[in-house]
Amino acid sequence: MTGSAPSDPLVPFPLPIERRVIVGAVVHFEVHLPFTATLTIHFPGGKVQTIMNAASPVSARKTKLFVPIIRNVNKHIPAEDIKAFNLRVFEEDRAMVEAQKPERLPLDLTLEAHIPADRSSIAYRRGLKRMGLGEFFLV
Q1: Is the pLDDT of residue 114 over 70?
Q2: How far is residue 65's CA from residue 87's CA, in Å, rounded to a whole number?
Q3: Cis peptide upstream of residue 102 (ω within 30 degrees of 0)
């Protein structure tokens, strides 16, 4: 995170069980408030892949997402194949996010029950609250 707010430690990204597990890899998920996050995978042998999600709000309910990917791993796989895979993952998530209620993200964490997979969302909401945003943030 940037700015004057204290930064949270790196939050492990909660990958669903059905996604491939890479033995020996270290995964870091960082939030750069309010609209950017990076997922960095450190593979054995100094190989790294970083995926950035940079959201650019277009209106109160529409956002354009930019997703640059840098890597020195799997260089034999064409960039278009990597892009297509990530698009499939985003499409799975998009349907869930668009159906999410309440539409406004509550920044008061006591309003909901949480599970371990919510760690990155909790860190994000705490950061938004430290930035002085209201009790609800429109996602």
Answers
A1: yes
A2: 11
A3: yes
